[in-house]
């Protein structure tokens, strides 16, 4: 598995980080970080923070070390949540930001581990565990959060051949930090997490790639703000045919967020949303919805921070949606793998990169172009033995935990290409055909740089 993160094009809000620091020919608008020692220094800082808690010292010294770390995180929480658009925290990746990205990613992992896909189970398509035991059952122990609500989404898609019941599927949960965690985090954190696509109707919804006006605020529909119809349907559809049916994912979420904001009124609060794949789309829609409705607004110039941590997320809306999210102060940190095809969808051709010609002329169809929202941290990993890892959440988190882990695999893969090149060129030499030798050399170089 190889890994790389590259520096941003400042105008594109794009940041990337690399363990191997190997340039790639297709990384347009990106340059490598200055040197490898910077990344190693960052990793050593992160490791020293962990090591300080296990070094055998006097208990008073341990308490001092712990309190220093706590106060630093507590004082930096607004920056880590993106109040300054993560300026100065991503090049290199700051230990506290890395720590928080991993933590929110593990909250999403719990969604996958707890989702019951056994058709013979009484909890089929729901969570296998109760709210009080969820974190313990998935192996997270006590993360300092209490689950307050489970969230269900109903895909408004009919598949005649499917055997799955047409009902709401468990997609995530809402949790709030405990009093002990508040002291460590510096604020009361409301977390909403979403898993990615699992069931057949969800896959169908993902491919409904037409843009449609979001119209989530009936007082101001904003027809120019458009989102992918499948994601919007998943977010707003409810169970039909029964007046006691499950409310839409949106209604469940807005109700619970409003309740928690009212319960902890007067405290320092943050709203953190995290999701993987389809889940990151739901997280972004909810973040936009909360901000558009003003649920996070405490005063004319005082808002509760709303931050999205997106893992392997696709595009969600058009340029109007992106610009409106930025106006509302929604912060989005996108963690993507450059080899992950899901992050290129929808809008493979009509996207933010193809709406302007020569930097001046804007095409007429620009309003119909998809656009990513937020700051992007680009990972670069691929495993020849397991190509599906490019979209696997576990691979994302594993690389973030051990950024140097991909170095040896990258070297091994380079050795494979070197041996393959020598073999092909050797065969081409025996043919005494110059064009074939050149073609063989170019072919190997092409694959090595893809």
TrEMBL record:
Domain Fungal lipase-type residue range list: 191-348
Keywords: Chloroplast, Hydrolase, Lipid degradation, Lipid metabolism, Plastid, Transit peptide
Protein name as annotated: Fungal lipase-type domain-containing protein
Reaction(s) this enzyme catalyzes, per UniProt: a 1,2-diacyl-3-O-[alpha-D-galactosyl-(1->6)-beta-D-galactosyl]-sn-glycerol + H2O = acyl-3-O-[alpha-D-galactosyl-(1->6)-beta-D-galactosyl]-sn-glycerol + a fatty acid + H(+)
GO molecular function: galactolipase activity; phospholipase A1 activity
Biological process annotations from GO: jasmonic acid biosynthetic process; lipid catabolic process
UniProt superkingdom: Eukaryota
Subcellular localization(s) per the UniProt record: Plastid, Chloroplast
GO cellular component, one term: chloroplast
Keyword Nucleotide-binding: no
Pfam families tied to this protein: Lipase_3
PANTHER family recorded: PHOSPHOLIPASE A1-IALPHA2, CHLOROPLASTIC, PHOSPHOLIPASE A1-IBETA2, CHLOROPLASTIC
Sequence similarity: Belongs to the AB hydrolase superfamily. Lipase family.
InterPro entries in UniProt: AB_hydrolase_fold (IPR029058), Fungal_lipase-type (IPR002921)
Native organism: Populus trichocarpa
Keyword Plastid: yes
């Amino acid at each position: 598995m190889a890994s790389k993160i590259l520096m941003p094009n400042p105008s594109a809000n794009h940041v990337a980080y690399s363990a191997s620091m190997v340039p790639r020919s297709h990384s347009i608008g990106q340059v490598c970080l200055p040197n490898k020692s910077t990344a190693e220094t960052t990793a050593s800082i992160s490791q020293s923070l962990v090591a300080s808690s296990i070094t055998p010292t006097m208990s008073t010294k341990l308490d001092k070390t712990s309190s220093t770390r706590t106060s630093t995180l507590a004082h930096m929480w607004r920056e880590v949540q993106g109040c300054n658009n993560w300026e100065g925290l991503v090049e290199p990746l700051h230990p506290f930001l890395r720590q928080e990205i991993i933590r929110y990613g593990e909250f999403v992992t719990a969604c996958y581990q707890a989702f019951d896909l056994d058709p013979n189970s009484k909890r089929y398509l729901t969570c296998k565990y109760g709210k009080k035991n969820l974190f313990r059952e998935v192996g997270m122990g006590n993360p300092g959060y209490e689950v307050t609500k489970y969230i269900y989404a109903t895909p408004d898609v009919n598949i005649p051949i499917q055997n799955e019941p047409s009902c709401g599927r468990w997609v995530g949960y809402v949790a709030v930090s405990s009093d002990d965690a508040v002291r460590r985090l510096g604020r009361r954190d409301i977390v909403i997490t979403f898993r990615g696509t699992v069931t057949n109707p969800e896959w169908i919804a993902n491919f409904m790639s037409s843009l449609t006006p979001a119209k989530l605020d009936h007082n101001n529909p904003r027809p120019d703000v458009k989102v992918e119809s499948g994601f919007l349907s998943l977010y707003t559809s409810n169970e039909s045919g029964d007046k006691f049916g499950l409310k839409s994912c949106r209604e469940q979420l807005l109700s619970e967020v409003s309740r928690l904001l009212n319960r902890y009124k007067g405290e320092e609060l943050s709203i953190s949303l995290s999701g993987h794949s389809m889940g990151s789309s739901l997280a972004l829609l909810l973040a936009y919805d909360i901000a558009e409705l003003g649920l996070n607004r405490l005063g004319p110039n005082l808002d509760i921070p709303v931050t999205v941590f997106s893992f392997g997320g696709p595009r969600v809306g058009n340029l109007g949606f992106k610009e409106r999210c930025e106006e509302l102060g929604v912060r989005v940190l996108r963690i993507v793998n450059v080899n992950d095809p899901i992050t290129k969808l929808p809008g493979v051709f009509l996207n933010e990169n193809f709406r302007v010609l020569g930097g001046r002329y804007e095409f007429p169809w620009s309003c119909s172009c998809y656009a990513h929202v937020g700051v992007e941290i680009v990972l670069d990993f691929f495993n020849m033995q397991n190509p599906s890892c490019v979209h696997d959440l576990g691979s994302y988190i594993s690389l973030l935990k051990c950024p140097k882990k991909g170095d040896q695999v990258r070297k091994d893969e380079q050795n494979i290409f070197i041996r393959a090149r020598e073999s092909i060129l050797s065969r081409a030499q025996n043919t005494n055909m110059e064009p074939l030798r050149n073609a063989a050399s170019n072919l190997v170089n092409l694959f090595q740089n893809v």
